[in-house]
Amino acid sequence: MRDSVLTADVPLGPFDGHLVPVFAAKGKASKLHAHLRCSRLRADGAVASEVPLNAETIARMCSVCAHYGHWGRPDSGVGLFLRALGGHRGLLSQLQEYAEADPDEEVTQEEAEDAAEVLRAEPVSEEGETYDEDRDARDDAERLRDLMLSRWRDAADSLHLVESVVAKFPWLADWARPKTALKEEYLQALRERAGLFVDAMGLLEAAAAASLEMSEFPAEDEAFRAIGDSREVARRLRSMWSRWQRAAADAWGLPDDPLLTYQAVGGINSRRKGHDEACRAAERLLASWEEEARRIACASDPGVTVKLTVHLQEPPDEDPYAQQHERGLLGSLNHWTIGVLLTYLTSADWGRRRLTFRAPQLIVDQLLTRTVLVRCEPEPPGTPTAADDASPLGPGVFDDTPVHQRRPLTAEHLRLLSTAPGAEDQLYTVFSTDAGTEVLPFKELERRAASGWQGVLVASSADLPAALIEPWSEAIGHPPQEPSAMWRERMREADDPLFGERLGLAVGAEHAAWLVFGDKPWAREFNLRLLAVARGVPDLRSLDSGYDRAGRSRSLPGAVWHGLLAHSQDLDLEPFEAPDDSTWKRSGSGIPLGLLTQVEVYAVNADPRYQGKGHSPFCSHVRDRGVVADDDLLTIADLLGDTKFDWCSKCGGYAIRRLTDTQLAHYRAAHRLHDIAQQLDPGWGGYDPGRLGQLVEQLLELEKWDPAGDDRSFSEDSRRWRRIVRELLLRARSAQAG
């Protein structure tokens, strides 16, 4: 393993002197450790402190922590800088990778030339010992070729990592330049040896084959009668053409695949009349395609070349299931494009992913059809490079300075932040002069920064003080042993103090904390931090961040969605419905919604005219995926005012934003008032004379409640509430007097 220990000679730039948290045993000369879990630190008596990051501190670092430790929070400015230096993919390690030849493993120029000569020679016929010897030699040559290609790709990827890190931290440029020059020199040597295996004419022929337009197929040719009717013949020949052209587009020459003609005659009995004739006709047709490709390649004069500068797409997130050759900067390029790079590349800026070629027009035309390559427009002299105009990372971008000293975020800052563990799963509080303070997911931040958005990052959900989160987590407690006990009892009497609790914030916090695998403390706190930040978001649809480059969903964890939303089955709106004496069912009391009027309701589809039944974001029909950007947003007032809805009977059709304590108090007061109205309604069995006094006391208590909150005693809702209470008081007192 290469040495990636931080040393005192590494320039620290604006982070020189920045305070970092450390742990150390007592004593001025004791080693400094990044965390208490270090095997070389005796935790008993260890002292936590903050020291300036400088040469003296680096000299005192424990060698294990200097190699593997995370100094500072991973998503802070200094943490991101030190993370970019350390680790296997960090700058310190990559500067040593592919910087010089390894005498024990290096493939010499002579070995590469001999192997290339073996592969260019015609293979001997399949018979005798000569064939076996030739096959073994060709196998060895192919392994050496693949090894050379792999090393060249890896060396290019390593140089890209080095130059991209230096571009992000420009104060490292002078220090890293001598080491980078060695890597460039070695990369060129690897390219020259790998290029020995590429045949330039073969690349031209493959490009010509890939450029051919689909021709008319001889579907009526009598030679293909054994295949079937003309329609079946055309289908099979089209399949043969497609496979041949795809193989050519990914090869260093015309494909030598004997199975290509099988696309035409496959599945037909070889003893069937006309089978052999159909095979020969397919071979002739294939040969005509090859002849046309060679004709076009020969017509393209290799001496007449054009210059092309292209831009490679940014490498996607590492896929643990991808093959080694599919990873890194060049992992998305096919075999033919790799051959073009080895043959026609004239210069490369690996840090900026800009490659310049000088190649025949036929090659250039095919290069531009590759979706991973984008043509770069010519730049006028004096145009600043990406490293020149990028805002370098320093204190003040993230959480390492007071808020009033923060600097605007850039796309480059966010690309660097994405390398911190878990950064893409956080929610971020940001401020801009356009929208004020907002809470955004990471992907939305990326989209805005890419379009030139100007804003600063105030804090992430990970920045919430432990003094708030830890007591909250302790108050919630551990989940009950019986899983079914996690879901509180639904049906309670209206005067029960816990009535409607399943709609409230407290139960939501329990779900966010308890619905984690293994009840791990870090997972509980992670969910609670997200929940605390998301509770202040006006529209939960804005938290949908879609998918990342690797295709992984970046939505909030399911437990957090359960913490934010309550199921529709827990909501009973009967007290707020208008009275209706014409039906046999229980009637509403017309109680004003008040504080509940604008409570948000989320449904996958609220209009049955377009997509049928509406579903809750928790419904199994939509895979319980939480709220997404194209869901419908309603209010509780909308639910009462419209009858067109057609909700799924399994999930109830929607989910509601969890009620605050004040909203829940009004929900409970409304149900208590409705329950009293039902008891005093003679049409529903009459009242219990022995309870009239108790009902009067409850009504006098409810008369003081204001459904609008905030002392809005003159609002229409407040007046309607008092009118309903007074009517019920009059009815109850009349019954007492009678």
Describe the structure.
The chain has helices spanning about 55-60, 65-70, 75-85, 90-95, 110-120, 130-170, 175-195, 200-210, 230-250, 260-265, 275-300, 335-345, 360-365, 385-390, 410-415, 440-450, 465-475, 505-515, 520-535, 560-565, 610, 635-640, 660-680, 690-705, 715-735, and strands at about 20-25, 45-50, 305-310, 345-350, 355-360, 375, 425-430, 435-440, 455-460, 565, 600-605, 630-635, 655. Strands 4-5-3-6 form a four-stranded antiparallel sheet. Strands 10-13-11-12 form a four-stranded antiparallel sheet. With about 750 residues, the chain is an alpha+beta fold. Helix 17 crosses helix 19 (about 520-535). The longest helix is centred in the first third of the chain and has 41 residues, at about 130-170.
Give the topology, please:
Blueprint: E1 19-24, E2 47-52, H1 55-60, H2 63-68, H3 77-85, H4 91-94, H5 109-120, H6 128-168, H7 173-195, H8 200-211, H9 230-249, H10 262-265, H11 275-299, E3 305-312, H12 335-344, E4 345-349, E5 354-360, H13 361-367, E6 373-375, H14 386-389, H15 411-417, E7 427-432, E8 436-441, H16 442-450, E9 456-460, H17 466-476, H18 505-514, H19 521-534, H20 558-564, E10 565-567, E11 600-603, H21 608-611, E12 632-635, H22 636-641, E13 655-657, H23 661-679, H24 692-703, H25 716-737
Antiparallel strand pairs: 1-2, 3-5, 3-6, 4-5, 7-8, 7-9, 10-13, 11-12, 11-13
Helix pairs in contact: 5-6, 6-7, 8-9, 8-11, 17-19, 18-19, 18-20, 19-20, 24-25
